[in-house]
Design goal:
The protein is an alpha+beta fold. The chain is built from three helices and seven strands; from the N terminus they run E-H-E-E-E-H-E-H-E-E. The longest helix has 18 residues. The two termini are about 25 Å apart.
Length: about 150
């Protein structure tokens, strides 16, 4: 891992690098779950005062992306997390959490598919715990929801 220096940029969802990573994410999710997950994120609804979007770079190549959205008071929802480089996902998650804290969030929630075992184990490794379903995920057995208290 020596010499690997991740950098990140706060961007808007129409950012070209973000869009190209989302294309990879959609293809990857379709292989795992038979669904791209695109219906769960509409970039037009992005509200810069409440939401955050990050792209992670390694040697000027975009290698990871993620978004958080306003969910409810002091709670954000993580969306469209993707990494194609070892270590970039953990770096991304930390940066998204810090960015969310800057915007006043104290808790993060997210949903992923149970069948996406890599994602499930990733969130468990990063101190997310299974939580009750919320919003459109209530009663959806294929989904698993997680939450974590964000600490400064």
């Amino acid at each position: 891992m020596a010499g690997m220096e991740f950098e990140y940029k706060k961007v808007k969802p129409n950012n070209r690098d973000f869009q190209s990573l989302i294309t990879e994410l959609n293809l990857s999710l379709r292989k795992i779950t038979n669904d791209t997950g695109e219906s769960s994120f509409v970039s037009d609804a992005f509200e810069p005062s409440k939401d955050g979007c990050i792209v992670v770079y390694l040697n000027d190549s975009a290698v990871a992306c993620g978004v958080f959205r306003y969910h409810e008071s002091e709670v954000c929802e993580l969306k469209r997390m993707y990494s194609n480089k070892a270590g970039a996902g953990s770096y991304l998650l930390k940066k998204l959490e810090c960015f969310a804290i800057e915007k006043g969030y104290r808790k993060a929630v997210l949903s992923t598919r149970r069948v996406n075992s890599k994602a499930v184990s990733f969130y468990c490794r990063h101190s997310y715990s299974e939580s009750s379903a919320y919003g459109k995920y209530v009663g959806v057995d294929r989904s698993i929801c997680f939450s974590k208290t964000l600490v400064i």
